[in-house]
Amino acid sequence: EAQVTQNPRYLITVTGKKLTVTCSQNMNHEYMSWYRQDPGLGLRQIYYSMNVEVTDKGDVPEGYKVSRKEKRNFPLILESPSPNQTSLYFCASSPRSFATNEKLFFGSGTQLSVL
Amino acid sequence: GDSVTQMEGPVTLSEEAFLTINCTYTATGYPSLFWYVQYPGEGLQLLLKATKADDKGSNKGFEATYRKETTSFHLEKGSVQVSDSAVYFCALHNAGNMLTFGGGTRLMVKP
Q1: With pLDDT > 90 as the criterion, what percentage of chain B qualifies?
Q2: Would the CB atoms of A45 and B99 count as touching at under 8 Å?
Q3: Counting C-beta atoms within 10 Å of the first and last residue's C-beta, which end of chain A has fewer, N or C?
Q4: How many contacts (CB atoms, under 8 Å) link A and B?
Q5: Which long-range contacts (CB under 8 A, 24 or more apart) does B68-71 make?
């Protein structure tokens, strides 16, 4: 089954403790992206990747890191989480470097709480 | 920069009522426009799209028409069902590699 898989689904952590949220897609997609969803603000893009070893900042990259060493995986790293990073996170992918008629395929989300 | 504005929710309707969720955008050039739907506990799914002015996107009884003169892409459905309860996001893609989302509108349909 074609899908985008995020783990974990829920995560509670404390300020300053490094964490990684994994994202994997099995569709051989070139484009992958991370979003955070906050009430009233919709989805805001954190980072995106056009292909292996090619990453770029989105609208809200501060406090986050990503890597794209393999085509299928695009982990999101929080080196020193803070409470303002408490949010619902989504990974998404698209077949090619984003074209106007391509749709995004989303994972089921990771609810992160930073205490 | 580009932006998308949606009506605030929640929108509460009775089953079989007519639905309109307003969406307006600000962008240079000729963006493509999308509606995504998020059912409880799930990620977003593409509902419909339109890539040029006067195009109408449609899917599952939902429709939206790309109106360049009013910079709008309002979502409509003639008769909603309880299963349509979800959060709806309007989005645009312009030049570049990012999708810009609106704030989302929660729809609640009561039997």
Answers
A1: 77
A2: yes
A3: N
A4: 59
A5: B68/B30, B70/B24, B71/B24, B71/B25, B71/B26, B71/B27
CB-nearest to A101 from B6, B36, B51 is B51
The pLDDT tens digits of the residues spanning B58-99 come to 999 999 999 999 999 999 999 999 999 999 999 998 877 778
Give A58's contacts in chain B (Cβ within 8 Å).
Answer: 98
Q: What is the pLDDT of residue A98?
A: 64
Which pLDDT does position B1 carry in this prediction? Answer: 82
Asked if A106 and B103 come within 8 Å (Cβ–Cβ), the reply is no
